UniProtKB/TrEMBL annotation, chains A, B:
Gene: panC
Note: The reaction proceeds by a bi uni uni bi ping pong mechanism.
SUPFAM superfamilies in alphabetical order: Nucleotidylyl transferase
Protein name in the entry: Pantothenate synthetase
Gene Ontology cellular component annotations, sorted alphabetically: cytosol
One BP annotation, GO: pantothenate biosynthetic process
Binding, (R)-pantoate: 90, 182
Organismal lineage: Bacteria, Bacillati, Bacillota, Clostridia, Lachnospirales
Subcellular location: Cytoplasm
Subunit (UniProt): Homodimer.
EC number(s) recorded for this UniProt protein: 6.3.2.1
Family to which the UniProt record says this protein belongs: Belongs to the pantothenate synthetase family.
Amino acid sequence: MTSCISIENSIEEYLQKIATKNKRIRRHKMLIYGQIEQVREAVKAWKKEGKSVGFVPTMGYLHEGHKSLIDAARRENDKVVVSIFVNPMQFGPAEDLDSYPRDLNRDAKLCEDAGVDIIFHPEPEEMYADGFCSYVDMNGLTTELCGKTRPIHFRGVQTVVLKLFHIVTPDRAYFGQKDAQQLAVIKRMVKDLNVDTEIIGCPIIREEDGLAKSSRNTYLSEDERQAALVLSRSLKIGKQLVEDGEKSAKAIKDAITAEINKEPLARIDYVDVVDFETITPVDEIKGTTLVAIAVYIGKTRLIDNFIA
Amino acid sequence: MTSCISIENSIEEYLQKIATKNKRIRRHKMLIYGQIEQVREAVKAWKKEGKSVGFVPTMGYLHEGHKSLIDAARRENDKVVVSIFVNPMQFGPAEDLDSYPRDLNRDAKLCEDAGVDIIFHPEPEEMYADGFCSYVDMNGLTTELCGKTRPIHFRGVQTVVLKLFHIVTPDRAYFGQKDAQQLAVIKRMVKDLNVDTEIIGCPIIREEDGLAKSSRNTYLSEDERQAALVLSRSLKIGKQLVEDGEKSAKAIKDAITAEINKEPLARIDYVDVVDFETITPVDEIKGTTLVAIAVYIGKTRLIDNFIA
């Protein structure tokens, strides 16, 4: 039986070798850059070779939501750049800039496994040099929903995203539909300012129990984590109403609000029904309509939505 | 003598032929495009061939000031694009949008003679489609000088220039130093937003009698044209003071103001001394300082400046 074992071993070894080799082939060399010029140079070299570039801008602490964006970018482009930058300009003075979760090592592993070519991870000083004073903003789209309680948020988002677009010059950029207003704002900005990048919105990724994936879920205590299910549960009720033919925005909002109010740990920031393109309130479901909510669970503000 | 004349003629003919041939070689096919996509496609084809692109954004009614920008672009780049677009977004409600002079045929001839490859001449609807609401602006640089009486002007300039940069993707863009504040604003915007275009400022071009070239000079009556010389004359006095060692901004402003006030048809909008990079007022000439004036001659508002 010795020979037999020996053969088994050698086959195993052979398979191992093949697997390792394949892994090596798949496991390309991902680079992490902190300097704008490094990214620019790398992308210019790719473009000279005619390669297409997909881009996923993030604030890091990556989860499966981000991974779904990276996977889409990986499928549709020759090269993939992910930026990891907790952008000070989009946080209000009383918001969670300092406590926002960060874990570059874990993020880097997720990106490498997902086939990312470059992580751009700049320091704030690299992005906002001395004397910085420019911004991008819009009249409309940014005043409703999250814009009500986060008045400078979207200015910061637009500015940093346009800066990143100028650095990465992507053919396609990927944004999660969880931040639905952000997606609408970026689409509008790109159209208005003639940015030559296709904006691709990707579906919300949820935990098994329905909670939308978010880096901020990490703030939740065990009780709050349970209470947070009220967001997806209430939206499910709203969605069912729409599917049953309900057209009245008020009826849908009332049903969602009633469900959220049953949860003692929840405090509503907004429950709104808006046109998905213009982010202006509508009375009736018509065309592409966004039903969006923001709810404080304890001190943590969570958002969720569906498209009707 | 007949043969001699004949020889002379043939030499002349020969020279003529050479000249015509050279002219033909120089006289390439200039294209005038009205659609964003046409410009994008042409520039992309150039870039694939590794050609560099110089860009001169204008509002048309071109004069030798513009030509000096085009000439610089022609010298330093493989291809040259000139945009001719009277941008509604940078005019205030009481300003001269409707009466701003326009002459596309004359402009096209000047551009063709100067070796321009593409004129981009869009309609306002092409640049500002339905639902347009985005803008680029900055905190600082835009509040002093022309910003005081033209509060929305620089927002309009920044927005249209960034749009044009996204369409033309120039390696270098050329701006006249006559619009010194505009030049400073565009330089700041490009730096802040990481636009991959080099901004090149070019010297003021003047009429023989000293008046800075401007499309708006066409508004002046004969008397006003004469009175308008007070701008360059007063700045010359200011410049002489600086050259003689005067450091006090107040002394320089006072001397310029006194000279302008001698001219009955002139009414001062501003006489200011500012840091050329930050466009903030300074008390002393130090570093690169901008001495800038805006003066109404009758109803026509003219600007001029020098760098101290």
